[in-house]
Specification:
heterodimer, A: mainly alpha, two-stranded antiparallel sheet, about 65% helix, globular, B: about 100 residues, alpha+beta, Ubiquitin-like (UB roll), 3-stranded antiparallel sheet
């Protein structure tokens, strides 16, 4: 994930490069169409760069904020092993955030800028992390459904036209599979447990199902970024296509657990081989994205506090490095 | 001299410097670039690279190097830069026709 620090060009060069002539744009699209990867220092249209910075940084922020609903159960995990596993999973989320921040930085945006945009509310993160994790079963449902939906979204991103993003996604997908399986494992245990445990699992599914479907983003009718992202091969499938794939693989998994997906309109269409789902409450999606979900304020307050609390550590490490560098110079 | 650059970089840049991370996945293989990391100094960069990139035993050795110290070829000049190798197909063994009947060549 090469970075803005490498072979920086003079100002006149970058001004020359900024010119988006029809020839340049056409040559760029030809590279994309030929399935060539675009690398950090290659010429790219400004809109391609901006789209990627928005998408990758949002993705990174989601990983970082996503640590919170899981962290909520860290001290109350039902066994030491469950606790170790959850801790490892949360560390992975932090790691995923870091891979993605580095990938975004290759496009010329600084880490500090991205963090500032998150904390000011300018940058968004996935709406799913604004829902509370009320019971231990929610940790199961998050791994199974939320990470499951994330995998569905992320596998095609491994083939994204932007090299650093695609390499980060390959890494992430390898690790994400552990997350989903540990989630399903929790659900299996609960569903094979007491009546109350199974009811807890059903309750978690009821609350996480619809928000998980919303993770794929607005319906294709209303998705404003899709067409261009498809042409640039940043996206490979539409939001609705990915949502459908997720539903098709997840409903049988729920049936195996003896749980019911909370959608009375859901039916299997034998002709197409797909499950047809009921209407999604898009107003809820808009509300949560625009800051009015159950936990938006709490998530941002916690992140801001963590950032402020860590300031002295960042300063101390820098002061230590400065002192030692000065000593070595003397 | 090195240390002076180091100080200058720290003083002018509030953000921790960036390092590129290279990992040898097992002995016998070469180190391979796998990502980057911000860290205040070299030791912290190694520690952070370990925590970030080898949580599942992905490596037996890590190199970290300041991103600003890497000298890279210019992608805009790729064609010209690598052009000298283009027309030297005689460097490949397949360029040569060996008469029938000659073996072990």
């Amino acid at each position: 994930m090469y970075t803005q620090g490498l072979d920086q060009k003079g100002q006149s060069d970058s001004q020359r490069d900024a010119l988006e002539t029809p020839e340049r744009l056409e040559a760029f699209q030809k590279r994309i169409d030929a399935e060539e990867k675009i690398e950090a220092k290659d010429w790219m249209p400004e809109a391609y760069r901006r789209t990627l910075i928005r998408q990758i940084s949002q993705h990174a922020h989601s990983e970082i904020i996503g640590m919170q609903p899981e962290g909520n159960w860290l001290t109350r995990a039902p066994s030491l092993q469950r606790k170790s596993i959850l801790l490892a999973k949360i560390q992975d989320e932090a790691g995923h955030g870091l891979y993605l921040y580095s990938a975004a930085e290759t496009l010329g945006v600084s880490r500090d800028q991205m963090v500032a945009d998150l904390l000011s509310g300018k940058a968004k993160y996935s709406s799913i992390f604004n829902y509370p994790s009320l019971t231990w079963a929610d940790i199961g449902a998050i791994g199974w459904l939320v990470d499951g939906a994330a995998i569905m979204n992320q596998i095609p991103l491994c083939r994204c036209s932007y090299g650093p993003y695609s390499r980060a996604m390959i890494r992430i997908c390898k690790e994400e599979s552990f997350h989903q399986r540990q989630g399903y494992d929790i659900m299996v245990k609960l569903c094979n447990g007491t009546h109350a445990q199974k009811a807890m699992a059903q309750d978690a599914l009821n609350r996480w199902w619809w928000p998980s479907l919303m993770m794929f983003g607005p319906s294709d009718r209303d998705s404003k970024h899709s067409a261009q992202s498809m042409a640039w091969k940043i996206k490979r499938f539409s939001n609705d296509e990915l949502r459908q794939k997720f539903i098709d693989v997840t409903v049988p998994q729920a049936e195996f657990l003896g749980l019911t997906v909370p959608d009375y309109d859901m039916e299997f269409d034998a002709a197409s081989g797909h499950y047809i789902h009921g209407e999604i409450d898009w107003q809820e999606f808009v509300d949560v994205i625009s800051g009015n979900g159950p936990c938006n304020e709490q998530r941002m307050a916690k992140r801001s506090k963590a950032h402020a609390d860590g300031a002295w550590v960042r300063d101390a490490a820098r002061a230590y490095a400065e002192k030692h560098a000065a000593r070595a110079a003397a | 001299m090195r240390a002076n650059c180091h100080i200058e970089e720290i003083m002018t840049n509030k953000e921790w410097p960036l390092y590129e991370v290279f990992i040898r996945s097992k002995s016998g293989l070469s180190h391979r670039h796998c990502g980057s990391i911000h860290a205040a100094d070299d030791q912290l960069a190694l520690d952070a690279a370990r925590d970030t990139y080898t949580r599942r035993n992905e490596g037996v050795s890590i190199w970290v190097v300041r991103s600003s110290r890497i000298v890279a070829s210019d992608p805009a000049e790729t064609a010209a830069f690598f052009e000298p190798a283009e027309d030297k197909i005689y460097r490949h063994p397949t360029f040569y026709d060996i008469p029938d009947g000659v073996e072990n060549l």
